[in-house]
Amino acid sequence: MIVSLGITIGLLSCDSGNTRRTPGHIYAPDMTYSRAYDAYTSNPNFADSMTSRLPVAGAIARGHQLPDHLKEGDTTAYKTFTTSMRFNEDDLKEGRRLFNIYCGICHGTNLDGQGPLFASGKFASMPANFKDAKYLHMSVGQMYAAAKYGKNMMGSYAAQLDAKQRWMVIAYIKKVQSENGGDAFALGETAKADSSKTMVAKVEEKK
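Given the sequence above, the corresponding structure tokens read:
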């Protein structure tokens, strides 16, 4: 009798195809029957009834960068503008590659202003020779502004190089300049690491 009753209950509890659509209790009904709202539809969960939300103020989308806040023509700001980014050997190699693609045709792959366009006689004025004393000590901000906005006959490269790529190119130029009478190279990761070691050493001395 008990066995027969168990079998009967078991058969009745099974879903009999299209005739039964009440499975009983649902563990998480809000997940089973979610109340989703399509984009651009009214949404009562927000005060402004907008389903599509604006990004959080100050948020930067992945793959994007913070604005540099430079204004074209502000030469005073150019001279003091700099970056906190530091570049390793791979970054400098990429900077060299980008320089040769976008800059070498005018400034020359040796950074001496003897690029193919100038050597061909098509330009009356010589592009910047980065090994010349006039440019050896030029600030990184001035170089960045030139790449972003252009200078004299040189057009803007903001569309070709993003902010990080511009800095990689400048880091490469500054590295070469440091080896040709320019200022000590200050954009490398090794310089940053060395300064950290110096700070640790000073702390140890105080102990």
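The radius of gyration is 32 Å. Try to locate this feature in the token string yourself.
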